[in-house]
Amino acid sequence: MTGVVQFRERDGTPKEQAYSGRIASTIKDLGLKAAMAGLRVEALRPGSVGFRRGGRHPSNTATEDLSRTEQPMA
Fold first, then answer.
1. For residue 26, what is the enclosing H or E element?
2. Which of 3, 9, 20, 51 has the most crowded CB, counting CB atoms within 10 A?
3. Over its length of 74 residues, how does the chain's per-residue pLDDT go in tens digits?
4. Residue 2 DSSP one-character state
5. How many Å apart are CA 3 and CA 50, to the nearest integer?
6. Rounded to whole angstroms, how far apart are CA atoms 55 and 49?
7. Strands 4-8 and 14-20
8. Count of alpha carbons within 13 Å of 74, Cβ hemisphere only?
9. What does the alpha-carbon distance between residue 69 and residue 53 come to, in Å, rounded to a whole number?
């Protein structure tokens, strides 16, 4: 299996160094396994997986957005 991996800065700009071949394949495999493990944990215990840099859980933002909208007149 082969692959190409290029990391990025926190602001989204790509770093100069890129990896390819077996090293990239291993990095991608580990990343996918970590993502799947996080999804499994979240499925078993909803709300247990945190978001980096103070992000909000999508369910919380949806309720806040609904409360800010105008209510339709009856």
1. helix 22-44
2. 3
3. 677 899 998 888 999 999 999 999 899 999 999 999 989 998 998 888 776 665 555 555 544 555 555 555 55
4. -
5. 29
6. 12
7. antiparallel
8. 0
9. 27
For residue 52, the model assigns a pLDDT of 65
Compute φ and ψ for 15, nearest 5 degrees.
-80, 160
Q: Cβ neighbours of residue 57 under 8 Å, at least 6 residues apart?
A: 47, 51
Residue 38's DSSP bridge partners are none
Rounded to whole angstroms, how far apart are CA atoms 43 and 61?
A: 19
- Measured at the CA of 47, the angle between CA 44 and CA 52, to 5 degrees, comes to 120
Report yes or no: 34 and 41 within 8 Å, Cβ to Cβ: no
- Contact between residue 17 and residue 8 where contact means Cβ atoms under 8 Å apart: no
At 19 the pLDDT is 92
